[in-house]
Write a structure and sequence with these properties.
Strand order of the largest sheet: 1-2-3-4-5
Order of helices and strands: HHEHHEHEHEHEH
Distance between the termini: 49 Å
Shape: globular
Mean pLDDT: 95
Oligomer: single chain
Helix content: 40-55%
CATH topology: TIM Barrel
Radius of gyration: 16 Å
């Protein structure tokens, strides 16, 4: 049985090596089945777990979600990335505390997104979103720094399909300490290319 440290090292190596498929188990059985199929890593699904409890996505309390994440981590030999929503807090200090608790479940990575859950204001303003990402980074570093932090931009999922805003937000999250960037909802070749090109460091002439 690999240790938590082993899983975290393996997860980082997967990201360094290139593209890989990461499926979403919603319970112990699906986690073990996906491992059996040969996948190299798993990621929890906030919506999938919520639906198993007859709750809407975002309706699972933090303690219940943490228990679920720990259960998945302990059920498999594979690295697990936690779909951790908005960090179960709006303020940076609250995000830091939630991230600390999530790291203690043994996850190899976790994502923090910039969606608020408020239809009237679906995204945190950029300054707040960056402060939240920095808080998440700080919590991981304080605990040892080995959990991979994923910065998620939710523009395309909340009715703001602006690729320029998406790229600008992802760059800001990278600068704030995110190790990996994710823009769910982008689909076209052009959108994907814009995100990939936007993440590359500029070359000096």
């Amino acid at each position: 049985m690999p240790t938590i440290a082993d899983k975290r090292r393996a997860f980082r190596k997967l990201h360094e090596a290139g593209c890989f498929v990461i499926p979403n188990p919603w319970d112990i059985g699906s986690a073990r089945y996906l491992q059996h199929l040969g996948f190299k890593a798993l990621a929890t699904t906030s919506a999938g777990f919520a639906f198993t409890r007859a709750l809407p996505d975002g309706g699972v309390p933090r303690d219940m979600m943490l228990a679920h994440i720990r259960e998945i981590v302990e059920a498999t030999d594979l690295p697990v990335n936690a779909d951790f929503g908005e960090g179960f807090a709006h303020d940076p200090a609250g995000v830091a505390e939630s991230v600390r608790l999530c790291g203690e479940t043994g996850v190899a990575g976790l994502s923090v997104e910039d969606a608020t859950g408020d239809v009237a204001q679906p995204l945190f303003d950029l300054d707040t979103a960056v402060q939240r990402m920095r808080a998440a980074r700080g919590a991981i570093d304080k605990a040892g720094g080995d959990v991979l932090l994923v910065g998620r931009c939710e523009c395309f999922l909340v009715g703001r399909p602006d690729i320029a805003e998406t790229v600008a937000r992802l760059k800001a999250y990278s600068n704030a300490g995110a190790d990996c960037l994710y823009a769910p909802g982008i689909r076209t070749r052009e959108e994907i290319a814009a995100v990939v090109e936007g993440r590359r460091p500029s070359r000096s002439m």
